[in-house]
Design brief:
Layout lengths: L1 H17 L21 H5 L1 H4 L29 E10 L3 E4 L8 E5 L4 E8 L5 E5 L2 E5 L4 E2 L12 E5 L3 E4 L8 E5 L4 E4 L7 E6 L2 E6 L3 E2 L25 E6 L6 E6 L7 E5 L12 H18 L3 E4 L10 H10 L4 E8 L10 E4 L11 H19 L7 E2 L4 H4 L5 E8 L3 H7 L2 H22 L2
Parallel strand pairs: 15-18, 15-19, 19-22, 20-21
Antiparallel strand pairs: 1-4, 1-7, 2-3, 4-5, 5-6, 8-11, 8-14, 9-10, 11-12, 12-13, 16-17, 20-22
Helix pairs in contact: 4-9, 6-9
Bound molecules: zinc ion.
Length: about 450
């Protein structure tokens, strides 16, 4: 019995030593037997970024004289013996030689601990113990200290734009952890990857389709919608003017078609630009001017309908257009201010469609006349820089209209001088007077 055991031991020792590369260089103790299969984590990442050292550009390949001896890998190099623990910085190949020409014999995972037994004097690569064998890894990707893994924190507040599922995985096969209701905020870890945003949901990590999250503060005000637009009794004789103070307090980033039957989708409504000096949001300035315009137009005998008289509403650009259409308004005046990346840019302009507009191209002449009259009156009264009428078919709030419409861009809130000016009562009165004069002129021209 005893003899048999000894014989077995001898056989094992003989077998081990004949393998050549097992335990030869490590020197201390018997190496552990090689595990039969590669661990799953090693292979999974190997195809894409396993070759950590390949990204190193300044790596010098060893000269041709150091041809490897395949039966005894690493033998043509000299080593300084070491005995220390190091950590892989990234997915890292373990090779049969202390250079890139060595065969890949395995992988280290990021932060994997490894026993270093020496360093190659010629290439600088480390000699390591790898699954009981001797292997070599690039010195550029082994660290003396365990890397501190920075804990990822969810730091971006995002808002759900619809009732949307939170899933356990970044795809629709992930189980549903819960539902974010419209307008609810959630903390996100970073930008979307493959269309999914990682979020912290009820203290768990979940994933939400990026289509339904926005960084803009978003709140529905279902209590004030298009149906709540106050329509006064219109039994006077003056022309009916619908005034739309552009934008609203909260963005509604849900999409609506850019024109009737169009597949181009645009955000329903936003907050607009912001004053660089006044600090006013555009939706605030627009309403201040619109309210003054209402008074002025009523004083001049017009019948006025306001799309909004408060900020906390939820009325999209299409819905605003439909209010004017349903009333068969004589003119629809949309009050806006502009923003530009160039703070020097200033001046006013109006907007209408092109004659080729697929929805209301046939009404180009009358829209253009209204746009010209308003811009002329406005520029004359305020003395501002007068820009051209901008003809474009990209405006949802024009494409959906059926009655003469213009968008007035009163000035640039990104220009310090113009922004400060538009925030003053004196200039607001001039702007309002100019718009009213433009309207008067428009009706004189169409009803001579
Ligand atoms: Zn605007």
């Amino acid at each position: 019995m005893k003899k048999r055991c000894l014989a077995w031991l001898l056989l094992v020792v003989l077998l081990l030593s004949s393998c050549g590369d097992l335990g030869k260089d490590s020197g201390n103790g018997t190496p552990e037997p090689e595990s039969p299969s590669v661990e799953s984590e090693d292979t999974s990442d190997s195809s894409d970024d396993g070759d950590g050292e390949d990204s190193e550009s300044d790596f010098e390949e060893p000269s041709g004289s150091q041809t490897p001896d395949n039966n005894n890998p690493g033998s043509s190099y000299t080593y300084t013996n070491l005995s220390k623990t190091m950590w892989a910085k990234t997915n890292l190949n373990v090779r049969s030689e202390p250079s890139k020409i060595g065969e890949v014999i395995g992988y280290l995972a990021p932060n994997e601990e490894v026993k270093v037994t020496g360093q190659c004097n010629e290439t600088g690569w480390y000699r390591i113990e790898y699954k009981g064998k001797v292997g070599y890894a690039s010195n550029s990707y082994l660290l003396d200290q365990k890397p501190v893994v920075e804990e990822e924190k969810p730091e971006i507040t995002m808002y759900a734009t619809a009732n949307v599922n939170v899933r356990s995985k970044p795809n629709t096969s992930g189980t549903v952890l819960g539902v974010l209701t419209t307008g609810t905020s959630v903390l996100a870890y970073g930008p979307a990857e493959n269309g999914w945003i990682k979020v912290l949901y009820k203290e768990k990590v979940g994933y939400v389709s990026e289509k339904y999250l926005t960084v803009e503060e978003f709140m529905m005000h279902p209590e004030i919608t298009a149906e709540d637009v106050v329509i006064p009794e219109l039994n006077g004789t003056g022309p009916v003017i619908v005034i739309d103070a552009g934008h609203q307090e909260f963005t509604n980033p849900n999409l609506e078609p850019n024109g009737p039957g169009s597949t181009t989708m645009k955000k329903k409504v936003s907050r607009g630009t912001r004053g660089c000096v006044s600090d006013w949001w555009e939706y605030e300035l627009n309403l201040v001017v619109a309210m003054k315009l209402k008074e002025e137009l009523i004083a001049r005998g017009y019948q006025v309908v306001m799309i909004r008289e408060t900020h906390a509403i939820n009325i999209s650009n299409i819905e605003r257009a439909k209010v004017a259409n349903n009333l068969k308004a004589d003119a629809f005046i949309r009050i806006h201010a502009n923003g530009s990346n160039n703070s020097a840019e200033k001046g006013a302009f109006t907007i209408c469609q092109t004659p080729e507009n697929p929805y209301i191209g046939d009404k180009y002449d009358i829209y253009r006349k209204l746009s010209d009259c308003i811009l002329d009156g406005f520029a004359e009264s305020t003395g501002c820089v007068k820009k051209e009428v901008w003809e474009t078919d990209t405006m949802t709030g024009i494409n959906w209209t059926e009655v003469p419409t213009t968008i007035l861009e009163m000035g640039h809130m990104t220009n310090p001088e113009e922004d400060a000016l538009m925030a003053t009562e004196e200039y607001q009165d001039k702007m309002v007077d100019g718009i009213a004069n433009g309207l008067d002129k428009y009706f004189e021209e169409i009803n001579p």
